[in-house]
Design brief:
mainly alpha, Four Helix Bundle (Hemerythrin (Met), subunit A)
Length: 194
């Protein structure tokens, strides 16, 4: 019986020790978790502040968006015209698209050049994707221009414009991703435009 009572006393003491220290250990773990969460929140806050677009960057981003949308619309219009049964001259539409693409690329370049050092560093991966999309648009625009000077037929023009349209879509998608990272809100239509 003596042996049994020592065993139960040991078990009872162990249980009491565990009951005493477990809540203290759990509280310490919660404090550590709260400290990590606060540090993560502070890191995220500092990152958001560093990426925040200036008013000039926001304005340029809106110009960039308008120019890219105009190029996309011009590509879409040229595709529709090329698909129509009428045999109208496509060269004015090709020239319009080329001009719209040049404007979009110039606005894109101006926007990226406005980045501060912290923005360049934090957006490095997104800017690489944007540069790749920009290069593809440039490549397809050159292909379009080489066809546009030869009074090409719709059959030759359509695949080039389709590739250019896809490249413009990719460019717009990458621009939008950067705008989101920089907390740039989409431009709202003015009340007078309704």
């Amino acid at each position: 019986m003596n042996r049994l009572s020592r065993l139960s006393c040991t078990l009872l003491c162990g249980t009491l020790l565990l009951a005493t220290f477990a809540p203290a250990q759990q509280q310490q773990q919660q404090r550590n978790k709260a400290n990590r969460s606060t540090a993560d929140d502070l890191h995220d806050f500092k990152r958001a502040i560093a990426l925040q677009a200036s008013p000039d960057q926001t304005s340029q981003f809106h110009e960039l968006t308008k120019a890219t949308v105009a190029a996309q619309k011009s590509a879409h219009d040229l595709l529709q015209l090329a698909a129509s049964p009428s045999k109208s001259d496509l060269s004015p539409s090709v020239e319009a698209l080329s001009g719209a693409v040049e404007d979009a690329l110039a606005n894109n370049d101006r926007f990226v050049k406005m980045f501060g050092p912290a923005q360049k560093s934090l957006l490095k991966d997104q800017v690489k994707k944007l540069d790749k999309a920009n290069s593809e648009v440039t490549k397809q625009a050159k292909a379009l221009q080489s066809l546009g000077h030869s009074n090409s037929e719709a059959q030759q023009l359509t695949p080039v414009v389709e590739k250019l349209n896809k490249a413009l879509d990719d460019l717009a998608s990458n621009q939008s991703a950067i705008g989101t990272q920089m907390a740039i809100e989409p431009e709202q239509p003015s009340a007078t435009a309704q």
